[in-house]
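If it is no trouble, might I ask you for a protein's amino acid sequence along with its backbone structure tokens?
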Amino acid sequence: MPSSDQIRAKLGLGPRPKPMFGHNRSHALNATRKISKPNLQNKWVVVDGQRHRIKLTAREMRTLDKKGISLLSG
């Protein structure tokens, strides 16, 4: 069974997105850590005639829709 990275490569997608880190800054310039997590969704996709469940971001789902690759529901 191919790994999720191999499936993503066949779909023309890059590596899985990682969280972004930064700071919230107040008017007094106090810094508090913040994390922006990617909007991951579990979706089924058919690759080489087999169904695979992979985690996709909302942006990647739009990209696959634009390329004409259909996602299976449920």
